[in-house]
Amino acid sequence: MQTRQARVAAAAAACALVALGTGCATKGFVRNEIQSVETRMEPTTAQARDAQTLAQDADGRARRLERETQLARDLALGNIKREEVRHITVGFGFDSAQIGAEQQSQLDAVAADLQSHPNYMALVSGYTDATGEEEYNFTLAQRRAAAVQRYLAAQLGPEFVRLAVIGFGESMPVAGNETSEGRAQNRRTEVVLVQPAPATPAAGEAPTASR
Is this model's pTM higher than 0.70 or not? Predict the structure, then answer.
């Protein structure tokens, strides 16, 4: 506002100098000059407002994503009580991190659940069988978990921050590694959808009545 007043005053002063120098300036001329200055200022003022609005929106989105990232991390680490709402297993071929067409339909359902429930988080855990070196299997498990993460993230967009990913290697098998069938079951990535568990009243505390 002060800048605008200064520009208008400058225009008025310039017009006054013209009037003193030539003796032919009129009040109408001065008004026209002032109006011209104000008209030129309007687009600049509108652009500044638009830029401020965009900056505020971006800042709000950044803060929301930061909160969701922290919530996903806390849920993954067990820092927040959680309850499971869906659990799927994505199988993989030997020494592969490629997601098959059959598994994609399962992941599509997971993505749909995440999109419809903003409070859901997905815990993505990769595993292998016990064939080969342990260090290699750990890396392979991470690749499998990352493949699932990328597939879901492509559908979630910025909401991908609600995915927590980890690779466990050959640890925590669900079947014996002595048979081909058992090893096939262990070559997997598990996706668990969770949500924060509802708060429960402390011991001796009466639940709050609904209103």
Answer: no
